[in-house]
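Lab channel / #folding
Pinned by the channel admin:
"Please post every new chain as: sequence first, then the structure tokens as a reply. Keep commentary short and put observations after the output so the thread stays searchable."

First post following the new format, from NK:
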Amino acid sequence: MTDRFRERLGESGLDLNKRKIEILQVNVGKLCNLTCIHCHVESGPTKTRENMNRETAEAVVRFMERSDVETVDLTGGAPELNPHFDYLVFEARKLGCHVIDRCNLTVFYEPDKDYLPEFLAENKVEIIASLPCYQKENVDKQRGRGTFDASIQALLWLNRLGYGGERSGLLLNLVYNPVGPHLPPPQAELEQDYKERLAEDFGIHFNRLYTITNMPITRYAAYLRALKKYDSYVELLITSFNPHTVSGLMCRNTLSVSWDGRLYDCDFNQVLGMHLNGRTEGPELTIENVTPDELESRRVLTGDHCFGCTAGAGSSCQGALS
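Reply from TO:
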């Protein structure tokens, strides 16, 4: 099958290879208390089997010890629902790593999870929280009824602990995903709108807003097909290709680890099963046996979905790229 993205790179005189691994993104599983329309991982309350066990979590820590990763990015599902979430946070902080928790905010109200805000603050964990809009109707439409109100209460809770304050050192960043099949608006302008509305309406403060393009794969692809908008959305991403975003793509300096220890260039490749095959002979590369040197300069595996990260201003786990 033709890789149109790789062809477009070639037409622009570009290639896509890994650099030094600086970010270890760990998807600890698909279990989540929400079932969001745009979720490319297809997470939900029934995904109890696809969860990282202790053995794999310990292998992740051993990789941290033998590498120079600066940031450990914990994601899911709702990563906090994995029984080894606290362990990974503790061990990463002991090694001096910056830790990110990709939090849906409503998880704080799950049984026995009300300790999480204080735990995250004590360990100076950066929170990147999904809030796809500052309007209740849009958030509940995308993430489920009651999600907006719970998210607002969670943000106020985090603010009381110091999150989002200019001098607290506790980073609280929000994520915007478009509700419909279109590209995100300019990140800086939308961030200003978010800050004004959340401050005026609720007294909420945060540090940064990240705009992330919805990826037309798995659950979101099915949603688009049901609306008969899949083809037009994919065409929008392809025609909006921006070569200036390629140098900042997250797959360059990130290693994605799945709940079972397999390795990928990014979280999107992970859900598509585009495994980082590694050696042509010998055992499959996993978080247990890989060395950082084996990853540097490797060619990143690509496909049509990669247009989602390079359309318009670009999109990464840290928001717009240009």
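NK: The radius of gyration is 19 Å.
TO: also worth noting, The chain has a mean pLDDT of 93.
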